[in-house]
Amino acid sequence: MHTPPGKPIRVYKKLRVCTDSHTATNFISKVAGREIVARDANCFHHFDDSVCSCVDYCGGQLLQRVVMMRRSFLKSGTSEVT
After folding, report:
1. Domain limits at 13?
2. b/e 17-33 (16+ beta carbons within 10 angstroms → b)
3. How confident is the model at residue 78 (pLDDT cuts 50, 70, 90)?
């Protein structure tokens, strides 16, 4: 895949994004430093800096807790998870 640096990566699929794919794409957006826009059967997901825009709609309560914990961890700047 060849896309210019800084341009979003766009992914389209006909099925729902599973939890594992969702988590992996979150981490890929952080590591690659790119925005990833994924459209699935139900909604658009905008992954940017390891945070997805769908937390309230598609992610459910468990995923929402994980994202909130991750945000808190990233803001604290600590290297250990407690």
Report:
1. 9-76
2. beeebbeebbeebbeee
3. low
Provide the edge-to-edge strand list for the sheet that holds 51-52: 9-12, 36-39, 44-48, 51-52
Structural domain includes residue 17: yes
Give 58-62 contacts, CB < 8 A, sequence gap 24+.
58/16, 58/17, 58/22, 59/22
Tell me, yes or no, if the pTM score tops 0.85: no
The amino acid occupying position 15 is: L
Chain position carrying tokens 């769908």: 54
The label of the residue with tokens 């059967």 reads 41
Identify each DSSP E strand in the chain by its residue range: 9-12, 36-39, 44-48, 51-52
Listed residue (19, 18, 21, 1) closest to 10, CA to CA: 1
Domain membership of residue 39 (yes or no) is yes
For residue 16, what are the β-bridge partners?
none
